[in-house]
Amino acid sequence: MSYVRFFGLVSGARYSGKTKQPRTSPTQCNPTFRWIEIFHLYLIVSVRDGEAMRHYRCNTCQQTWDLEESTVQAHGAGLTCPACRSPLAEVSVVQAKAAAGADGNAELEGTFLDWLGERFLGAPKVEDPWASGARFVFWCLVAWVSIPFFRLPLRLLDDYHFWINRVNLIFHEAGHMIFGVFGNELLMFLGGGLGQLLMPLMIGAAFFFKNRDCYAAGLGLWWAGQSLVDTSIYINDARALDLTLIGGHSGREVDGHDWNNILTILDCLDQDIYIARTVLLTGRIIMFGGLLWMLVVIARGVTLSVTARKG
Q1: pLDDT tens-digit readout, 201-215
Q2: Helices (DSSP H) in 152-184: which residue ranges?
Q3: How far apart are the C-alpha atoms of 179 and 105, rounded to whole Å?
Q4: By CB neighbour count within 10 A (0-12 exposed, 13-18 middle, 19+ buried), where does 82 fall?
Q5: What Cα–Cα distance (Å) separates residue 102 from each residue in 86, 92, 96, 267?
Q6: Helix (H) or strand (E) holding 29
Q7: Strand partners, 91
Q8: Is 48 helix (H, G, I), strand (E, B) or coil?
Q9: Which of 267, 276, 284, 268 is nearest to 237 (CA)?
């Protein structure tokens, strides 16, 4: 593909020796492909397939074009910009590279930021004010529920019987059954923590990749962080074995519990408090990230709605 066609893809038009009508590039609709094309603006050369290239710049739209010698001779004085149909002016190689690099940087930055926004905040759309209001009210409820998980020290978290821990318990026990199928003792003990962590992550991933609902994906991320906070309570009790388990007995009255067995097998039982604090901090960071993600999605929707009404 000649550089005439290459730069045509970047600008959204193609230039042909038979017709001078620009037409939209299919890759223009794909931000990822367009980002790659813009990035390759830095790889401009002066010769393509052994044929000399001449460099032109449009003074109207400020785009730079590398044209083959045969194309220049075919059009002669009637050579015009494929994008805006204005006359082209020939420039030096250095000028062409500098101009293309500057244009590429600006377009690359805008396209990449747009891609990030659409990927992690959802496609820009004007939402119903009632929907945005309902989302914000729900976010406030989630933030209110999160306060004890951020405020309380690790030793006091078990004194509060959070209802969401009951939900985590369902997937915790299911994880033991699922990972116990593999016949590995360590994996079976780890299955409880993995089950209650993987479930919110899978739900969040489904909303993110399948439904493109970044608000729900942020909620799934928050839930995964809360699950880690819940897990840190049991890790902190690995040696003490004071927690009351499902049957109403403490770990001392039975043969320990999951994290006592896990850390014993891994020969790091004496590090239980350090590991628990690390998991607690990680969980809190993930919870905060989920809350922030949800809030940014709401704010973006409100901003678009306000802008649309003003327009």
Answers
A1: 999 999 999 888 999
A2: 163-180
A3: 49
A4: buried
A5: 21, 16, 10, 57
A6: none
A7: 55
A8: strand
A9: 276
User: What secondary structure letter does DSSP report for 267?
Assistant: T
Which residue in 36, 52, 60, 75 sits closest to 3, CA to CA? 52
Tens digits of residue pLDDT in 269-296: 999 999 999 999 999 999 999 999 999 9
Sign for the CA dihedral angle at 125, 130, 132, 138 comes to negative
Is the pTM of the predicted complex or chain greater than 0.85?
no
**Residue ranges with strand state E in 31-103:** 47-48, 51-58, 64-68, 88-91
Q: Residue 48 CA to chain centroid, in angstroms?
A: 38
User: What does the alpha-carbon distance between residue 109 and residue 89 come to, in Å, rounded to a whole number?
Assistant: 27
DSSP symbol at 86: P
Residue type, 174: A
Dist. CA 165–CA 159, nearest whole Å: 12
Q: How many CB atoms lie within 10 A of CB 171?
A: 19
Q: Which residue has the tokens 């962080």?
A: 225
Closest CA to 196 of 166, 241, 159: 166
Amino acid (1-letter code) at residue 98: A
Compute the average pLDDT of residues 119-126: 74
Please list the residues that pair with 105 across neighbouring strands: none
SS3 for 256? coil
145-192 pLDDT tens trace: 999 999 999 888 876 667 888 899 999 999 999 998 998 999 999 999
Q: Minimal CA–CA distance to 10: which of 109, 108, 114?
A: 108
Assigned token pair, 35: 């980002």
Residue 47 C-beta-side C-alpha neighbours within 13 Å: 4
Residue type, 9: L
Q: Where are the beta strands (DSSP E) in the chain?
A: 47-48, 51-58, 64-68, 88-91
